[in-house]
Design brief:
The protein has about 160 residues and is mainly alpha-helical. It contains 8 helices and 2 strands, in the order H-E-H-H-E-H-H-H-H-H. The chain has a two-stranded parallel sheet.
Amino acid sequence: MINGEANLEKILNLLTTLAPIVVLIDEADATLGNRDSGGGGSDVDSRIFSKLANAMGSPENRGQILWILMTCRPDLLPIDLKRQGRCEEHISLFYPDNEQERLEIAEAMVKKNNIENTFTDWSPLTKHDLSLSGADIEAILIRCRRNARNNGRKVVSQEDLL
């Protein structure tokens, strides 16, 4: 067994021992590769992918190991991993698509990051023509706080948001 295969075997045995357990794989499209080795991958990569896919679909692991795959590109996830029995629930998280949703996210991010502010107009963050994710809104607010602190203020003002 090649090193990667041996490591995967150890990990799968550990997961079985620790069950019930949740396994979260971020950037699954890039992390897990594909069963197809035609794209420059090796036979080892293909065997590792196959072993992981089998573990995800194993009836013995059902209810014991919960696999959560996260990706911004579900179109790049191998179809083998998206089938029933491996990843049974697909949850799409979309960008907020209206001003109210963006406002709720902005208010939550202000609270989460303890950003003192005197905002009276949230429209620079919430106007309808913006396509911002929650992470984008949070980053903007953190930059506003940094700007205020760089200017000797603890409270973020409306001007920082503009």
